Amino acid sequence: MRCDTALELDSRRQLALDGEIQWREIQVEPGTRAQERDRKELEAKYPGQENARKRLAEVSAVETARLPRVPWTRIGDHIDHAVKLVGADHVGIGSDFDGAPMPEGMEDASHLPRITEELLRRGYSEADIKKILGGNTLRLLEEVEAVSKKLRAQATS
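^ that's the sequence the OP posted. Answer follows.
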């Protein structure tokens, strides 16, 4: 497939790696020289596997401080991008209100209805919105449960 933008290339790589595109992919440019320099400094400051958690905590704090605040409507751009890549049947959203930096206007769960309004404004059907806002996740969990039951039944027979 041809990728026209760095975001598209990074999103496809991320989907191939773990099936997920996260907010950070649309907020910052990945792999800057400054990030590489910071990583090396942290490895020197906290060497070894036993210090991995310290490095992760400091990297998270540094990256969070660097992230630009973006408007909540960027969520709609993000959903549009994912739907164009894989289709509405394979897109779902989640939230992380317990410490992750959130876009301006989406500081807590009381603002979540804005996403529905934005998707309607962008022309999404109610059926696709239901899928994106939770239907796809529920379908996936039901499929996982069915496979689990099948495997358990095979193991006992």
